[in-house]
Write a structure and sequence with these properties.
Largest interface: A-C, 106 and 99 residues
CATH superfamily of the largest domain in chain B: P-loop containing nucleotide triphosphate hydrolases
Distance between the termini of chain B: 34 Å
Structural class of chain B: alpha+beta
Radius of gyration of chain C: 25 Å
Strand order of the largest sheet of chain B: 6-7-8-3-9-10
CATH topology of the largest domain in chain B: Rossmann fold
Strand content of chain B: 35-45%
Number of helices of chain B: 8
Strand content of chain C: under 5%
Radius of gyration of chain B: 25 Å
Number of helices of chain C: 13
Oligomer: heterotrimer
CATH architecture of the largest domain in chain B: 3-Layer(aba) Sandwich
CATH architecture of the largest domain in chain C: Orthogonal Bundle
Largest sheet of chain B: 6 strands, mixed
Order of helices and strands of chain B: EEEHEEEHHHEHEHEEHHEEEEEEEEEE
Helix content of chain B: 10-25%
Order of helices and strands of chain C: HHHHHHHHHHHHH
Largest sheet of chain C: none
CATH superfamily of the largest domain in chain C: MetI-like
Chains: A mainly alpha (about 290), B alpha+beta (about 375), C mainly alpha (about 300)
Number of domains of chain B: 2
Number of strands of chain C: 0
Distance between the termini of chain C: 17 Å
Shape of chain C: flat
CATH class of the largest domain in chain C: Mainly Alpha
Chain lengths: ~290, ~375, ~300
């Protein structure tokens, strides 16, 4: 009896976490998937009724906006954050005296809750009292910056706030990557007389391909999960103009009492993440094991 | 007196892959057994099986006369030194050495006594309060040995303990290890891929390849009478020359005929009573080919050989020639008159040669 | 890239070199302003009176520093029906975060230890499954979790939130420890086994003392994640058990009464202080946590 315990201790120790993950992650995903195929409203029903929830979802104009916003926001956020992060990393890599302090400054927004970020930017972009008023006060009477309450432009305020929050992280990633490039390759290039900027474009940046990938994965993950920021900054408004799948799901689940819709929208979010993350994880695990 | 280590018909597989096949070996108290072979031959796996760190698929294993096939490592009365020394990085040298005793609940006084003894034996007294990170490679080696010594076990196991040291240090530690063995009279099982280490340290060598034992014997046996082509080629540096030849019985014995490119074959006459097939591989060590003028005993046969390259190496000069389509190395005296491109009369000591069958690789004489 | 950059510019253009250098610092400075500006604005706004805010300038320093907004934010602001300020919710977050961090870190350490040092068949599959769990959007577990918490009787309670954060933090903490322990040679465990130590002994005496750097990284990461969380907080808490992020959102988005922007800002800073403090004090470990596993060595 004791010998069995002793031999199997590792498995027994891992078991609770494993069971927890199986139940609370995979089991729950299965439950949500199941419910997304039913006619559940306020309470879950369990008879499968086919894909009506998805039909309703794709026919809903609110979802259309939300899903479209995901792409607008996602693409802009990821691209600009990566460019900005790379730029800052390259600048900081130039043997700057105050590098430590600057790194701290660029990165601190990551330590904040997205609610805090949203609150701060909501104030800054406040049409009557924020940036617009300030610039007008400087004499530019006709300056308008009412993006926050403009249905067409509001989504871009979210882009700005998200970039502010996360570009420091991308910078940290890229800076670490820049510095991990083999110094001897750079010396060889120097001896060959290649100018600095060329060394960056032709040698360093291409060798950082895996880091671009990591940054992309993390940023897209952040984009898809964006819920806190939208709630704090615009509440999904004006109207539904800045709705994202995450806010749509929450509204369906807890305000509208439409669990079927909540489940189906959650599953769509799940699938989007799935298609991005699974290939990445697969290749990562393959190369790390062996 | 029972054997200190006895392994019978040991097989080990990882799933479908057989790593060790039918291993049978035993040693007496005081033996220094070396498991030697190329990477992947299974020697480390066998050592781990002896230690109990890996389970055996079939067969049995006993230490000190007691069956240990399913016993866990801590109850086998063994101590082990690892290639990377595996010292506990956050503990001082003293704590590293006494950790095992602490786990077993040995009282403090005994712990201190044994620690002092071992520290003095290995001359590591000044290092006792340091952490492994502050020690040099050689010092860490000693501490790892101290940790093993303090257990006073039936069997010491070493897994390539010298591989991480630089060449000079390796030679020093080898000598120390041998001295330790002689002083303690301990039984040791040692794994290495370095055949020089095997030859210098062992009282008994097991040559392994592909999970199968190729030969078990004393260093002299392995060196002078290798059991097959693999052992002949693997052990000894520079390697034994392995020359394809034809064997034809003549009136006085067997004529060994070796072809040469663009030249007449040389014929050596072996007068011993041999029963060789027509195609053989002649195995002759470089030191058994010498200047004809210098060596003469009953068994030598002389031949004129065209020297291709001459490599002076201090005390010796190596001469390379082509025989039987192979590059053959002879170890000549440093003052030899051999020159590249010229012919030199060389003597082959047929009393020391080995004959192998080309198809099976097995030894024929 | 240390000595490389500017030394290749030839010395026959010293003015160009200095200009380039200046340009570099100016750009870095502009970005620094971009990142600092929001916090600066938050701080100054929180110290202004409402009148000043209405008339004034976003980026001006307060003409008259007043701490009224801070007092209100801490103990008087309204988060719905209650008007107790952030104080009770600040303690809620502490009550959630501290046990949550401790438990998930300990479990992550044990799990990482098992997966990296005690390989058994299926260990890697289990690890992969746990790893994938890190990446799911939590929306997909909100509904069933709400039901299960109800069935367990801990819906809307602090222990309920601790439970949720531990479960969904396990993936990351296990990842951190596993990546750290994987680089420790297995011979160390073997030597300890030969010395007679068992599973827990080896963990306690050998691995834990080695783990200080990764423990710090994990604790900082988990604390930041749990303290800053909003989604679980708003989904699984009730009026009295809400964390500080939910309270902040309630204060800022409350529809009753006059909008007190200075109070909003003060409340935001209160919510941000702990993680900000952790960042300032132990920032480099924070960065290590962010880049752990993301940068290929």
């Amino acid at each position: 009896m004791f010998k069995w315990l002793e031999e199997n201790t590792p498995k027994l120790v891992l078991a609770p976490s494993f069971i927890a993950v199986m139940v609370f992650v995979y089991g729950f995903i299965a439950w949500t998937a199941w419910v997304s195929l039913t006619r559940s409203r306020l309470l879950p029903k369990y008879e499968i009724d086919g894909f009506i929830q998805y039909d309703r979802l794709f026919a809903s104009p609110r979802w259309d906006t939300a899903f479209g916003n995901l792409f607008i926001f996602g693409i802009l956020f990821i691209v600009i954050a990566m460019i900005l992060g790379l730029l800052l990393a390259i600048l900081l890599d130039q043997n700057i005296r105050t590098e430590g302090a600057l790194r701290t400054i660029y990165l601190y927004p990551m330590a904040l809750s997205m609610i805090v970020t949203g609150t701060a930017w909501k104030w800054i972009l406040n049409p009557g009292l924020g940036l617009e008023a300030t610039v007008r006060g400087w004499g530019f009477e006709n300056f308008t910056f009412d993006w926050l309450v403009n249905p067409d432009m509001a989504i871009y305020t979210i882009v700005i706030a998200a970039i502010w929050q996360s570009s420091g992280f991308v910078m940290a990633l890229f800076l670490a990557g820049l510095r991990s490039v083999d110094g001897e390759i750079i010396k060889a290039a120097q001896v060959d007389g290649i100018p600095t900027w060329r060394v960056y474009t032709a040698i360093i940046i291409p060798s950082m391909a895996p880091i671009f990938l990591s940054a992309f994965i993390v940023l897209s993950h952040l984009a898809i999960k964006s819920f806190d920021l939208v709630i704090a900054l615009t509440g999904g408004g004006p109207g539904y103009a800045t709705d994202l799948p995450a806010t749509y799901m929450y509204a369906m689940a807890f305000s509208r009492g439409d669990i079927g819709q909540a489940a189906s929208s959650a599953m769509i979010m799940m699938m989007v993440v799935f298609t991005i993350v699974v290939p990445y994880l697969y290749s990562e695990l393959r190369s790390k094991d062996g | 007196m029972s054997k200190i280590l006895e392994i019978n018909n040991l097989f080990k597989s990882y799933g479908p892959v057989e790593i060790l096949k039918d291993i049978n070996v035993s040693i007496d108290q005081g033996d220094f057994l070396v498991l030697v072979g190329p990477s992947g031959c299974g020697k480390s796996t066998l050592l781990n099986c002896i230690a109990g760190l890996e389970p055996i698929t079939s067969g049995n294993l006993s230490i000190g006369g007691q069956d240990m096939t399913t016993v866990s490592p801590k109850d086998r009365d063994i101590a082990m030194v690892f290639q990377s020394y595996a010292l506990y990085p956050t503990m001082t040298v003293a704590k590293n050495i006494t950790f095992g005793m602490k786990v077993r609940g040995v009282d403090q006084a005994t712990q201190d006594e044994k620690l002092a003894y071992v520290a003095q034996q290995l001359q590591i007294e000044p290092l006792l309060k340091r952490k492994p990170g502050q020690l040099s490679g050689g010092q860490r080696q000693r501490v790892a040995m101290g940790r093993a010594l303090v257990r006073d076990p039936k069997l010491f196991l070493f897994d390539e303990p010298l591989s991480n040291l630089d060449a000079k240090l390796r030679v020093e530690m080898r000598t120390e290890l041998k001295a330790l063995h002689q002083r303690l009279g301990a039984s040791m099982v040692y794994v290495t891929h370095d055949q020089i280490e095997a030859m210098t340290l062992a009282t008994k060598i097991v040559v392994m390849k592909g999970g199968i034992i190729q030969q078990i014997g004393t260093p002299a046996e392995i060196y002078n009478r290798p059991a097959n082509l693999f052992v002949a080629d693997f052990m000894g540096s520079p390697a034994m020359n392995l020359i394809p030849a034809k064997a034809v019985k003549n009136g006085i014995g067997t004529a060994i005929q070796i072809e040469r490119n663009g030249n007449t074959p040389i014929v050596l006459s072996d007068t011993k009573n041999l029963d060789l097939p027509e195609d053989v591989i002649l195995g002759v060590r470089p030191e058994d080919i010498s200047d004809a003028s210098l060596r003469a005993n009953n068994e030598t046969q002389e031949a004129d050989c065209v020297i291709e390259i001459v490599e002076p190496a201090g005390a010796d000069t190596f001469a390379v020639m082509e025989l039987g389509g192979k590059h053959v190395t002879a170890r000549l005296h440093s003052e030899t008159s051999a020159k590249a491109g010229e012919t030199q009369r060389l003597a082959f000591d047929l009393g020391k040669v080995s004959y192998f069958a080309p198809d099976t690789g097995k030894r024929l004489n | 890239m240390a000595d490389y950059s500017m030394h290749t510019v030839r010395n026959n253009n010293p003015i160009g070199k200095i200009a380039l250098r200046w340009g570099l610092y100016v750009m870095l400075g502009i970005f620094a302003v971009f990142y600092l500006m929001p916090f600066f604005v938050m701080l100054t706004t929180s110290l202004k009176s409402l009148d000043e805010i209405r008339t004034g300038d976003l980026i001006s320093l307060p003409r008259e520093v007043t701490l009224d907004a801070w007092r209100t934010a801490w103990s008087g602001a309204c988060t719905g029906i209650q008007c107790e300020g952030m104080r009770p919710y600040f303690w809620n977050s502490m009550l959630i975060a501290i046990p949550g961090v401790a438990i998930s870190t300990l479990l992550g350490a044990l799990n990482g230890y098992v997966v990296s040092q005690w390989k058994f068949r299926g260990a890697n599959i289990i690890f992969s499954l746990m790893l994938f769990g890190c990446f799911i959007p939590f929306q997909v577990v909100l509904l069933p979790m709400a039901r299960v918490l109800g069935m367990m009787g801990i819906a809307g309670t602090i222990p309920g939130l601790i439970f949720v954060h531990v479960i969904y933090g396990l993936g990351f903490t296990t990842l951190f420890f596993r990546n750290y322990y994987v680089s420790i040679p297995s011979e160390l465990t073997k030597a300890a086994k030969v010395d007679g130590a068992g599973f827990f002994r080896i963990f306690w005496s050998i691995f834990l003392p080695l783990s200080i750097p990764i423990i710090v990284v994990t604790v900082i990461w988990q604390f930041t994640q749990i303290w800053n969380d909003f989604l679980f907080g708003v989904s699984f808490s009730q009026a009295g058990t809400q964390p500080v992020t939910v309270a902040l959102n309630n204060i800022v988005n409350s529809t009753t009464g006059v909008k007190e922007y200075n109070v909003d800002m003060a409340a935001a800073i209160i919510a941000a202080l702990p993680t900000l403090l952790v960042y300032v004090v132990a920032g480099k470990y924070f960065v290590r946590g962010l880049t752990a596993g993301s940068v290929k060595g």
